[in-house]
């Protein structure tokens, strides 16, 4: 006798990031649609929620335009030796700032910008893809690190090995010249890349090209998502009773995670910060249910969602965000093998089975 078909589970996946517009072109939206079209590969239905957490502002635009101009000028046949031996980009935001500077230069130039001739080092495929869509991108053979790196630490190691290998075949006189890189950053960066480059005898010029700040609409939008989760559960059938829907929060950076967790704590979804009240994940991988004594009291502007706390799950885009969650004494139920949409969806779906 054939076994009855396995009941499919509904899971809410909250992507704590600003989606691309139009939404139909957002890579995570597309990955979720693709997963939905392959129901035989998983037994969970994902209901996707987009929750913008940070707003981006470009900065030091004059300095960046000057730097981009030097990068492109180095490609001219009659140019002086290049100022830098490569450009380092660790996020799509830094690429967006670079592209904005390219567009400004293109509008003011009397001829098209020449394609860059120096290498670009990027973290992961999303950054690489964004760079290839630039108004004047480097040729594909000049973009390195996308396959080999998923974190800043791995990219830094790759860069060091890249230049050491290049120098090993050069004359001794050429090896005395230390490589110098242009390193485009945001306002919230760890010192992982600078420390490794310095240890590898590689000089670099950091240039902050963007900053991020919390979205003023995040708290309101979070409440809307949670209210929607409640409404979905209330509309379930009798056979859904006792089968609470998991609510997954996918986090993409320590800075974004910090803002999100602060609002979740105000709503008693997770325990207080370990800096104020010690709290540790339980042995079964769930986080302890916040009690009346250890959670901030909800206010009229911060509704109490403690009844959803047991259903919360966390997914991290990579090891840096995973480490931050552990430092917050929170369990991490899924980690993407690479910082890519398909890898994140696969990690979440594996963890739901």
UniProtKB/TrEMBL annotation:
Compositionally biased spans, kind Low complexity: 276-296
CDD domains: HemD
Gene Ontology molecular functions: uroporphyrinogen-III synthase activity
One protein family per Pfam: HEM4
Gene Ontology annotations of biological process type: uroporphyrinogen III biosynthetic process
Tree of life domain: Eukaryota
The protein's name: Tetrapyrrole biosynthesis uroporphyrinogen III synthase domain-containing protein
A cellular-component GO term for this protein: cytosol
Annotated Tetrapyrrole biosynthesis uroporphyrinogen III synthase domain residues: 51-266
Region (Disordered): 269-305
InterPro entries: 4pyrrol_syn_uPrphyn_synt_sf, 4pyrrol_synth_uPrphyn_synth, UROS/Hem4
SUPFAM superfamilies: HemD-like (SSF69618)
């Amino acid at each position: 006798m054939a076994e009855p078909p396995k009941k499919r589970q509904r899971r809410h996946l909250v992507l704590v990031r600003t989606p691309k517009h139009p939404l139909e072109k957002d890579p995570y939206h597309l990955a979720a649609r693709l997963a939905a079209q392959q129901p035989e590969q998983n037994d969970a239905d994902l209901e996707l929620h987009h929750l913008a957490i940070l707003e981006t502002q470009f900065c030091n635009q004059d300095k960046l335009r000057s730097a981009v101009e030097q990068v492109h000028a180095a490609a001219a046949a009659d140019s002086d030796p290049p100022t830098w031996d490569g450009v380092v980009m660790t996020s799509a935001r830094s690429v967006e700032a670079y592209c904005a500077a390219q567009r400004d230069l293109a509008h003011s130039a009397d001829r098209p910008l020449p394609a860059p001739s120096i290498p670009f080092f990027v973290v992961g495929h999303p950054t690489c893809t964004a760079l290839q869509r630039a108004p004047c991108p480097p040729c594909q053979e000049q973009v390195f690190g996308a396959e080999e790196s998923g974190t800043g630490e791995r990219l830094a190691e790759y860069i060091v090995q890249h230049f050491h290998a290049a120098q090993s075949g050069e004359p001794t006189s050429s090896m005395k010249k230390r490589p110098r890189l242009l390193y485009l950053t945001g306002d919230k960066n760890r010192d992982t890349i600078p420390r490794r480059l310095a240890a590898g005898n590689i000089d670099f010029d950091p240039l902050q090209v963007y900053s991020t700040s919390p979205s003023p609409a995040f708290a309101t939008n979070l409440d809307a998502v949670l209210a929607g989760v409640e409404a979905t559960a209330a509309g379930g059938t009798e056979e859904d009773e006792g089968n609470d829907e998991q609510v997954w929060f996918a986090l993409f950076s320590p800075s974004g995670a910090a803002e999100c967790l602060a609002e979740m704590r105000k709503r008693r979804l997770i325990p207080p910060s370990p800096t104020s009240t010690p709290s540790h994940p339980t042995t079964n991988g769930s986080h302890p249910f916040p009690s009346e004594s250890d959670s901030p009291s909800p206010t009229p502007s911060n509704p109490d969602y403690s009844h959803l706390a047991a259903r919360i799950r966390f997914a991290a885009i990579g090891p840096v965000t995973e480490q931050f969650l552990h430092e917050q004494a929170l369990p991490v139920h899924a980690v993407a093998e690479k910082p890519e949409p398909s890898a994140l969806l696969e990690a979440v779906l594996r963890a739901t089975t």
